[in-house]
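INTERNAL AUDIT FORM
Audit reference: QA-55
Scope: verify that the stored structure record matches its stored sequence.
Auditor: D.O.
Record contents follow.
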Amino acid sequence: MNRMDRDFRPDGEAVLEYLDGEYQVVRPGSYVICAVSGAQIPLDALRYWSVDLQEAYASPAEALNRFSTAGLTPK
């Protein structure tokens, strides 16, 4: 393993502030927890979140499910 292959992120859950199209790291970590399924989502795989609810989702289906139950989808 060379220096470029190392992962310098700390282990454990990260705390993020979810913004439009990006997020800001409040507390470093290697993953966040999906608000619907409870699955660990590695930060490099995080693609779905809600700015309004400040939650992360593992898949688009889980995000849509949460948005529907929170009343954030058009009727």
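Auditor finding: record pair retrieved intact. The longest strand covers residues 22-27.
Action required: none
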